[in-house]
Design a protein that fits this description.
The protein is mostly beta strands. Among the domains are: 75 residues, no CATH class; 88 residues, Thrombin, subunit H (Beta Barrel); 204 residues, Neuraminidase (6 Propeller), CATH 2.120.10. It is built from six helices and 32 strands.
Length: 544
């Protein structure tokens, strides 16, 4: 097991990580020479910086006019309630009454009553049989709680998504617009829609040059952005709106990696895992994950054979996409905060809230349609606990107690399977750093600390993602708190290209086996084991 506190030394103040070369992270103190380290493909990446002053939150009301494009408008109380009613109905109005903006105009007693009514509505609509703390959060606070962006509520950039093959990326901004940036092309299409409010996630469809899925407060928007078009504002005809009752907000989306028109959508306030056929605008609920408070995130394995479904409770499920049977892992130390698959879909890394460890689950190479075929237990492969060696014993104990709380916020694995980047929680003393590790699975899984990545002085990372289809190794894209985007290439020699020719093809969930979806017959169990002292045991159950 690797321990970061024992193997990594943070960079000095003012040192900026620009790249990794020959296995070493290179830092510079002169910002003017950063561009000299950007070689080949990286030199064509778009320059992006979004200032908070350039963004304005416009009300997503029905009667948007040309006037709203020029004059800054502040929503009145009546407008806020009108917008809430239009978007979410009674639940939206109750949520607006309970919001901080209504504290001065609504009596505390009325707010308390409305909060309990809102919890009751969410409990019934989401088919939850247990009360969970997140049910009482406002829509905005709920999205921020489960977002992979550490500062979702205030960050100028809320989400970033690279296209799997084409050299372009989409960024979701604080004002709920989405911009498409190309390499070597100055054209920047802007996507905006009245239902595109509180954007939670943005996902490009694999093996398609133009289709982009956007998760928002009340719906899923499927945009078609033609690469050959010279229009900067696609028309309303370029978007398809999908919605499922109770999926509000849509907290996570995942396309089938095989290029099918299959999109999985979940909501942290609803127990239904919904599979959409986007070409037909049809859906099927493959599972109601009851007693978990909802489903906060879905993550499809790159080989298309498995789907991770994380929940707000101390459990998660692994679905196989043949018959959509699943294995349930429960009694964890906390909910799944972040997770990532290796390129072959045979290894899953995940972290929990309230825990400083990274856990690993291994899967067999066989693409069985009977079960996910996971190993009998998960093991601890990394310890990110923070120790302040300069403090006295009392302060050190307090620091250790702090890091037993939220320590890890997000984690990404590049498509070569050789680099893992981890961003810390905003309350962690290392929140201005990104930890970088090298990984290997020959002959068994191992993870080795490489170093810390640091940006310009005074800024912190809020969102991280690896660029896909990078031909020189791996390239980490970092969104910073000041609205800038930087690229940190990792020049890895002799990188084996990852093929997209998957032998396994995820079946259409609307086919002959559709009647078998959602059955829950347990047939075996396993035992959670950990290399970490004082860890909590958890059970795994396979459900058909």
């Amino acid at each position: 097991m690797c321990s970061v506190s024992q193997s990594l030394i943070p960079p000095d103040d003012g040192e900026i990580a620009v790249c990794e070369r020959n296995g070493h992270i290179i830092y510079v103190t002169d910002q003017s020479i950063i561009d000299s380290y950007m070689e080949g493909q990286v030199s064509t990446f778009p320059y992006i910086i979004i200032s908070s002053e350039s963004l304005r939150r416009t009300p997503a009301i029905v009667g948007e006019t040309a006037k709203s494009a020029f004059l800054e408008q502040k929503e009145t109380t009546a407008q806020r309630f009108k917008t809430a009613w239009y978007n979410l109905g009674v639940a939206g109005v109750l949520g607006e009454i309970c919001s901080e903006e209504s504290n001065q105009i609504v009596y505390p007693l009325v707010q308390n009553i409305c909060q309990y009514l809102l919890i009751g509505m969410r409990w019934i609509r989401g088919m939850n049989f247990t009360l969970f703390p997140h049910l009482k959060l406002s829509q905005e606070a709920l999205i921020a709680e489960f977002s992979m962006n550490r500062e979702w509520s205030t960050s100028p950039i809320r989400f970033l998504s690279w296209h799997p093959k084409a050299h372009k990326l989409a960024i979701a901004l604080l004002d709920d617009t989405i911009k498409i940036h190309y390499t070597n092309i100055p054209l920047v299409p802007i996507l905006k829609h009245k239902l595109q409010k509180y954007v939670t996630c943005v996902e490009w469809k694999p093996l398609s040059a133009s289709i982009l899925a956007v998760g928002s407060q009340t719906a899923i928007l499927i945009w078609t952005v033609e690469p050959s078009s010279f229009s900067t504002r696609p028309s309303a005809g370029a978007v398809q709106v999908l919605s499922y009752s109770g999926h509000s907000p849509v907290t996570s989306l995942a396309w089938s990696p095989t290029g099918d028109d299959v999109l999985v959508a979940v909501s942290a306030l609803n127990t239904a895992i919904v599979v959409w056929n986007t070409s037909m605008a049809e859906y099927q609920v493959i599972q109601h994950v009851t007693t978990c408070g909802g489903v906060s995130r879905v993550l499809w394995s790159p080989d298309g054979s498995k789907v991770l479904a994380a929940t707000p409770s101390s459990s998660f499920r692994i679905f196989e996409t043949g018959l959509w049977t699943n294995e349930r892992w429960s009694n964890l130390a906390g909910r799944v905060q972040c997770a990532c698959w290796n390129p072959k879909g045979t290894t899953l890394l995940f972290a929990l809230t309230g825990d400083s460890h990274i856990y690993c689950v291994k899967f067999s190479n066989s693409q069985s349609i009977d079960s996910p075929s996971a190993s009998a237990h998960a093991t601890v492969v990394l310890d990110l606990k923070y120790f302040d060696e300069s403090a006295d014993s009392d302060s050190e104990r307090q620091s250790q107690e702090l890091t037993k709380a939220n320590c890890i916020h997000s984690m990404v694995w590049d498509e070569t399977g050789q680099r893992v980047a981890i961003m810390f929680h905003k309350d962690d003393p290392r929140q201005h750093l990104i930890a970088l590790f090298s990984t290997s699975e020959d002959p068994s899984f191992s993870i080795t600390a490489k170093g810390f990545l640091q940006g310009k002085e005074g800024v912190s990372p809020v969102f991280i993602a690896f660029k896909l289809n990078f031909d020189m190794g791996a390239c980490l894209t970092v969104c910073w708190s000041n609205g800038s985007v930087s690229y940190i290439p990792m020049y890895i020699p002799d990188v084996n290209s990852i093929t997209s020719d998957f032998r396994f093809k995820a079946p259409n969930p609307y086919g002959a086996n559709s009647s078998m979806l959602g059955s829950t017959n347990p047939d075996r169990s396993g035992l959670w084991s950990s290399m970490a002292e004082g860890s909590v045991f958890a059970s795994r159950t396979t459900l058909n």
